[in-house]
């Protein structure tokens, strides 16, 4: 029990919270044909996080958030500049900027010596859910002990904060999000600006990327922004149902993926370990595959 | 030649013979990606290329496992490259299938295939890291690339494949240009547009797989995007654009290889991508055909003349 509380519970919470926050906003990326934006966001915030860490010398939440947001904002402006002022084709504009930002982040990580102290390129690429531990836990009573709870890994607080903000905004603007996602022309005629709502979606995706990146790595965040929403989209036409289903699949991927990563090697008796972030992402991909093969809405026409 | 900065002397090909061969091999690869990138960009396959590149990771890992199981060295290049090519093709097929046969759109197909394949690769890597075979540290270089420790034979292989890629593009140049600018016209006149698109995707696959060693699979797509995007600012002519893009790709890869010759810990891919991006930025402003500054000066001349 102690081991579960100290090692598995925090990792499980980090994995599932990240899955939920990414999947929630991912629904609107998938519907507005911006699925690759999640991938781009995951890459561009890296240099921001590294620079903020080097300047401030700490991994405090607000430092990470500020750095990541500055990087996301800067990248978004650069992509807009490339598209509008320089007239570069949109996917080339996005592709050149997010690869350059990630390359910058990688070099900064290597050169600044950060790599050897708190997080390195491997953690960013592969995910490092396993490093979330709660040594203060001494038993079930710790769950109700404020002193012990205060020493929960900081990324948990960040993820919870992100989830609350994203959920709050999605609930408030649900009607606008629905209209813009399915019929941007109609939205314009009833006075809802698709551009404004689009900016809102991108900002929330940035927030989700920021709180998830250092906790679970790029790959899990990309997978969770697209796979659970895509799975849900294969099963329903109703947006509310789709959002709830996507959260369900995100949760199921998180729990099942983590369980497989921990238990499969034990069951097979090998001295091997499976990366939890990767396993969770693969499980989410398999859910999507099953939904694409057997989902009720697979033959529906391609009108968003 | 004492007194020169080490980077300068390496750039001027004054390093050892092996380093020179490696740098030239990298430059050949950069040129090949620059050439293929032009058509990948014009046919809007840039992001598909990113997914396909990430999808090589499980193939590399499976190639490693297969090589070890059969008693070869885990880093034996033929195994790794074959594995990479197989999973890359599977990923390309998966993207096609999802965007043609389900209600999900192409962007969702690309993102989900990229994420799932790459994640599977990561899981396999974590398994390999705990196997007691040794040599697994070597797999890291395929993520972000490294030219340090690269053999002469590997560099020559790179150059040969790059030449083949360039030759195929030269042979199909007229057809590829046509489908890039007017696919409908090409189709109406009986050109096999689908087949030519498949050829572009095939060339993308080849440069991605041979580029793993130098640039790494995470960032190789940048070499397919930034050089052609930069080249467009210097000319409107497709032939010249292809040559300029090849030159930019070659210069970027050459620089990256030179820098990692001095500091072997620096991920080569990251350096290459940043050089290519810097050239893109310069081109955006000062490109002779569409650069922002160039256009502004041109507009003033026109106003004065009228």
List the helices and strands and how they pair.
The complex is a heterodimer of chains A (304) and B (306).
Chain A: H1 2-31, H2 35-56, H3 61-84, H4 90-112, H5 114-117, H6 121-126, H7 146-150, H8 154-172, H9 174-182, H10 184-189, H11 194-216, H12 218-233, H13 239-268, H14 276-294
Chain B: H1 6-11, H2 17-42, H3 46-54, H4 56-69, H5 77-101, H6 106-130, H7 141-144, H8 152-171, H9 173-181, H10 183-188, H11 193-211, H12 220-231, H13 238-262, H14 268-286, H15 292-305
Helix pairs in contact in B: 2-8, 2-11, 2-12, 2-13, 3-5, 3-6, 3-12, 4-5, 4-6, 5-6, 5-11, 8-11, 12-13, 12-14, 13-14
Short description:
The complex is a heterodimer of chains A (304) and B (306). Chain A is mostly helical.
Given this structure, which CATH class of chain B is correct?
Mainly Alpha
Largest sheet of chain A: none
What is the CATH superfamily of chain B?
ABC transporter involved in vitamin B12 uptake, BtuC
Q: How would you sum up the global shape of chain B?
A: globular
Number of domains of chain A: 1
Biggest chain contact: A-B, 65 and 55 residues
Distance between the termini of chain A: 48 Å
Q: Mean of residue pLDDT of chain A? A: 86
Taking pLDDT < 50 over at least 5 consecutive residues as the criterion, the unreliable ranges of chain A are none
Strand pairing plus helix content of chain B: what structural class? mainly alpha
| Percentage of residues in strands of chain B | under 5%
Counted by DSSP, the helix tally of chain A is: 14
Structurally, the number of domains of chain B stands at 1
CATH topology name of chain B, in short, is: ABC transporter involved in vitamin B12 uptake, BtuC
Alpha-carbon distance between the two ends of chain B: 56 Å
Quaternary form: heterodimer
Average of pLDDT of chain B: 88
How would the global form of chain A be characterised? globular
Number of helices of chain B: 15
